[in-house]
Amino acid sequence: MKLVGIEKKIGDFQLAIDSLEFAAGKIHGLVGHNGAGKSILLKIIMGLIRPDAGHIDYAGLAMDEITLMTQTPYLLHRSVYENVIYPLKIRGVKIDAHKEKEIDALLERAGMLSHKEQYALSLSSGERQKLSFLRAVIFEPRLIMMDETLSNLDPDSEKTIIEMIKEIQAARRATWIIVSHQLESKEGLCDFIHRLEGGRLL
Fold it and tell me: 2-201 belongs to which CATH class?
């Protein structure tokens, strides 16, 4: 995926990306201070914000193959299970016995199986982030964007999510764009680090 000439002005802030390419099947870190434009850039890629100029070559990616996890997860007022399967339901994926086993295995891997029938909004902030992660990866998207998803996790949960990212990469090679202030300390996670400052790529 390649971004060319992307510009977006919001108030006094100006995002201006001359050229930025995200190699397929790689883990990309997006770093920068608060207000650098990281979240705006992800929302432009997701199609939630329309740029004032420029274009994105999605290289064959369809919008339903892309997912975005926000810093504050948007959860359905339903059970953990209903939240996890929502992306499958809206894509018409049949949830048979085999798929149920896959869902349970994913929940168990994240330490969330015991919360399967729990009301999602009663979870702790860290558990909500883990649920958001599971919901994002359950339908096997080709592009996964994480906006500070790792920030509110306790060390054990963070370790689990990072291990799961690496396991997914070993199995099927998705493309990841991960925003986090601590990414550069996550040795071995990212294949590339891209730095934004003041709306521009350094």
Answer: alpha beta
